[in-house]
């Protein structure tokens, strides 16, 4: 599975060709209006261009006309190379690779329980690679009353379900929430959000649905700045990805695109597989993000003249330790990767989940340290256009400077970066998604406990206490 059959490979899409594929009749909406021209939309067009740029960049990384995000890694080195490549190729490359690896992981885990789906899964992976499409994952349902299972909801559509069948396929109905870049891709990997029980067969459905399939409707939200001058938003002004509320309004799915249909006992396999790859991607981003926070903290401390103050140094040291631990978990997850049923290599579950949990659980404290170090100008610094005003601009530059070697504009730009990254719309999005992406913190605790060698820890404890294991009741 590490290579793509050259007989079926066509040339990779260019960015311009990708943008042309979006004109396919898809129904996508933003703030009360249907969007008929995604590339030309004032707020969604920027993300479209980002994806197009990612396509063009990947073309420069390929020497044989095959997309570098094609294929499934079969060694730890290949896995590291793939993860780093998709991380730099942009969000859509990342979610596509995550989708492909989710399917590859599932195929290796259902060889005995549901072998009838394996050829379909492998067939779709090959087809997606041939077409050079982008895939997003639809997992989180509307859920209704969270205290009730799918079969006991007042509205049975609270979880995506099968509502009709024909010899050719099924019809599904429901909604999936928080779907990053749903409107920007070509395929929706739609899977159960949780384990299912007997009597919930209609909810045990996993399938690949085209974004432009009749009945698919996507409502978008975005943290992209609404300002014409994006210099005050140095992070989100350059890069923003919309979130989609995906509605399946009686959507037909043909049999060849169905990967699970009624097998409640393995419904959770899809969620667990996606969780692993989502958390690895999140861990990768968190490692770089933590280093960025450290850099901003040090730069603004120096600009403020406080880099030598004891409590400032202590806070930055704590941020450095956090960044180093998150990075170490990522490195361990790759180094301890394991081969699955078909030779594909997967990151270590323990280190992936422990790292994702650590990065998310402590993120708010790292941001608090950054804000404490930087000061109130994080949210009150004047705009770049104010600094250019003939009357007040020179005065603002004067008073935003701290000494002769710290220009007022330089310090202002640091404050804008910190605000945009941690204290504005994008900062709020990051705060929530760090916790929720790939499942909430509780999910990472469950998986970490499942893969931790607790018996070995108990044996070490017994030895330290001078006790024999036979003296202790189970």
Q: What percent of residues are in strands? A: 5-15%
Number of helices: 16
Q: What is the makeup of the main sheet? A: 6 strands, mixed
C-alpha geometry = globular
Q: What's the pLDDT, averaged over the residues?
A: 92
- Give unreliable regions as ranges: 1-9
Work out the count of structural domains. 3
Order of strands side by side in the largest beta sheet? 2-1-8-9-5-4
The fourth-level CATH homologous superfamily of the largest domain is Butyryl-CoA Dehydrogenase, subunit A, domain 3
User: What is the CATH class designation of the largest domain?
Assistant: Mainly Alpha
What is the first-to-last residue Cα distance? 44 Å
The fold-level CATH name of the largest domain is Butyryl-CoA Dehydrogenase, subunit A, domain 3
Q: Give a count of the beta strands, DSSP E runs of length 2 or more.
A: 12
Provide a quick synopsis of the model.
By secondary structure, the protein is α+β, with helices and mostly antiparallel strands. It is built from 16 helices and twelve strands.
Can you walk me through this structure?
The strands form 3 sheets. The protein has a 6-stranded mixed sheet with strand order 2-1-8-9-5-4, with no helix packed on it. Strands 3-6-7-10 form a 4-stranded mixed sheet. Strand 1 and strand 2 form a beta hairpin. Helix 7 runs antiparallel to helix 9 and helix 12 packs across helix 13. The N terminus is likely disordered. The chain has 474 residues and is an alpha+beta fold. The chain has 3 domains: 129 residues, 4-hydroxybutyryl-coa dehydratase, domain 1 (Orthogonal Bundle); 130 residues, Butyryl-CoA Dehydrogenase, subunit A, domain 2; 189 residues, Butyryl-CoA Dehydrogenase, subunit A, domain 3. The longest helix has 38 residues. It is built from 16 helices and 12 strands.
